[in-house]
Amino acid sequence: MTNASNQQRLLSCFQAVFPDAPEAALLNATIDTLPTWDSVGQVTLITVVEEEFGIAIDPEFYEELTSFGAFVKVVESAGK
Amino acid sequence: MTLREALLAAGRPSTGAPFPFFLCCGCEPLHLTTFLKAHMRGRLTPTGRGVNVTTGRFGDLAGNIERALAAEGSAPLVVVLDWPDLDPRLGLREASRPGLNDEIAILEEVRARVGRLGTLLTRAAVDRRVALALPAGPVPPWMQGMPGQATTFMLRLRESAASLASACSAAGVRVADSLPGEPYDFRSYLNTGFPYPVSYADALSAQLAALVLPAPPKKGLVTDLDNTLWMGIVGDDGPDNVHWSIDRHARVHGIYQQFLGGLSAQGVLIGVASKNDSAPVAEALARPDLLLDSQSVFPVVANWGTKSASLRRIAETWNIGLDSIVFVDDSLLELAEVQQELPEVECVHFPSDATALLETLRALALRFGRESTNQEDRLRASSLRAGSELASLAAHTNPETLLSGLQGRLTFDFQREAFDPRVLELLNKTNQFNLNGRRWEEGEFRQFLAGPDSVLCVVHYQDRFGPLGKIAVAAGRRVGGALRAESWVMSCRAFSRRIEFATLRALFEEGGVDAVLFEWTATARNGPAREALELLLGPIGDTGLLSLDRETFLARCPRLYDGPTESGTSLPLGD
Fold first, then answer.
1. How far apart are CA B409 and CA B575, in angstroms?
2. Three-state secondary structure call for residue B515
3. Judged by CB atoms within 8 Å, which residues 14-43 of A form the interface with B?
4. CA dihedral B368, B375, B78, A36 (to 10 degrees)
């Protein structure tokens, strides 16, 4: 699995949860740049990513998952 | 469906006013909201409508229901109940110190909350659709007994939930059946307040959406005979040597016959399409040990033509769309031929294996599942048989002579105090004689019934061929001395008897109006309604408000074979 394909799969997760945001904005998105990235959006995003990659993200990391890049890292650290 | 798929389905572009509903639960609704939206959207696909869901406050199920009931309109309620809603000590998020008398206190609290919820949901079901899911999660481990033992405490808890379900069901609430699969995700519940695994939330939402927006049930089943309704080939083996008994190792066919009998009793039409000569088929179907009343099987098409041609003929006799028919055959070749020629028909393979048969029958039963069976459902098969006799008589008889000899009797019922599901069914399922194709939401119709100016006329019919039951409905509102007809439908089983004209006469005479204003819109299928209106009004175009006054009606109404109407609700139409 390449990082590029992980990034594409993560992007599709972000697009499902934040359908109104353009692709370029999502790749650089942080919790501060997307108004719809609230607590419900966060839990939904985590569940969609867990589902997509077949991983269980430790709740300890929830608060650190505040950007697209942070999700890339958590997916990679899960060995994906 | 995955959560990502649900998000995409829920977010698809929509048209028209969104379908509103309330999701009432005590937990964080989170993914239930998404999955419910997606499944509701799926069921609304033909309309293109979106959905608008309103949720409530965490930990306040009863309050959420109360707020939904206080809101304007009569949007459906989806209620998802879990143990902590009946006592927070039954959940694992609330911290509490277990006490010696906890179980007694909890059971008392559960009974009190069940009573309150029962009252609320019973009230809600009066004017709206309500779907209820019962508790599925576990109770705290320290409240369980020995391994494998159902404790008195747990049995009483379940008894309370069952009593709520029973009372709600009796009041018209649609109670969801239990689902397979793990219903609890403790990690998610602790972290987010959402207690269900994603897969369970998906399955639960699909089930609840089906209860709120049920798919129209199939209307008819056409079955093959040889090695399907019975074991053996009737043309080769003879009518006495086809079998369905356990001692002949043919019980699966007997079960299938019983299944068809059960469907028939619920008003499902049962027909036969068989490649056979008709004589041995008739003889075999007349056997007294058949587990299906042969009178409930109509028509029986036995010939050497294609099965698709037989199905077309049966659909015409039943006067229903091919998409309302399921065809069952043991031959994959015959099924493929029908599927190729008639893709609208749902084709089902009759398996020879007993276990597979049971699964097939369970799946088939869901296709025909309906909330209740009314008198008209039970009359459908016999009235179709009578209609067929009438049609063959009409082919050789002058129409006036035929109508005058029918001994038809109409009853016009103007009461609108009680909601009648059959009336709503007629309004929402009739296509051919339909003033404008309008469909009514249940809540909307209940509100219409309560309106001070509303007029509802429900028409019952019977003649010498037997009763047809409730076969026509006119619904509208008084506007000055006129009736503005918003809906007017008549079952196709009642065609060719001039009942539409007798209905108008009843509206003028018993409804006491001087004119009827029709909200007319042409649809792809309402030619019969156009025909009747044009006979009275001349060409009517494709849409508009048409006005018919009493004098015009009396001048142009065809002969109805009876004298002027007097007071009362019963009109004799024939000799």
1. 10
2. strand
3. 16-17, 19, 40, 43
4. 60
Q: Identify the bridge partners of residue B458 per DSSP, sorted by sequence position.
A: B413, B473
Q: Among B471, B476, B503, which residue's Cα sits nearest to residue B490?
A: B471
CB B299 within 8 A of CB B271: yes
Per-residue HEC secondary structure of B300-329 comes to EEEECCCHHHHHHHHHHHHCCCHHHEEEEE
CATH architecture of B398-572: 3-Layer(aba) Sandwich (3.40)
Predicted confidence at residue B102, as pLDDT, reads 86
Q: How far is A67 from chain B (nearest CA, A)?
A: 19
* Helices A3-17, A39-53: inter-axial angle, 10-degree rounding: 140
Per the CB < 8 A criterion, the answer to whether B490 and B499 are in contact is yes
Measured between alpha carbons, how far is residue B95 from residues B46, B59, B142, B431 in Å?
A: 48, 14, 13, 58
- Token pair, residue B124, equals 């809600």
- The number of helices, as runs of H, and strands, as runs of E, in chain B is 21, 18
Q: Residue A20 carries which DSSP code?
A: T
Identify whether the C-beta of residue B441 lies closer than 8 Å to the C-beta of residue B458. no
pLDDT at B553 over 70: yes
CA–CA distance from A68 to each of A10, A42, B184, B551 (Å)? 8, 11, 30, 75
- Chain A residues with CB-CB distance to B8 below 8 A: 16, 19
Q: Helix or strand or coil: residue B49?
A: coil
The domain at B3-212 falls in which architecture?
Answer: 3-Layer(aba) Sandwich (3.40)
Structure tokens at B76: 């459906």
DSSP code at position B547: E
Instruction: Tell whether the model's pLDDT for residue B396 goes beyond 80.
Output: no
Strands (E), B437-542: 454-463, 466-479, 482-490, 515-521
Q: From the candidates A12, A20, A39, A48, which should be mutated to test the interface with B, based on the most B CB atoms within 10 A?
A: A48
- Does B220-368 match B3-212 at the fold level? yes
Report, at the CATH architecture level, how domain B220-368 is classified: 3-Layer(aba) Sandwich (3.40)
Sorted by where each begins, the domain ranges of chain B are: 3-212, 220-368, 398-572
% of chain B beyond a pLDDT of 70: 94
Predicted pLDDT at B568: 40
Q: CB neighbours of A32 closer than 8 A, spacing ≥ 6?
A: A66
Average the pLDDT over B280-303 and give the result. Answer: 94
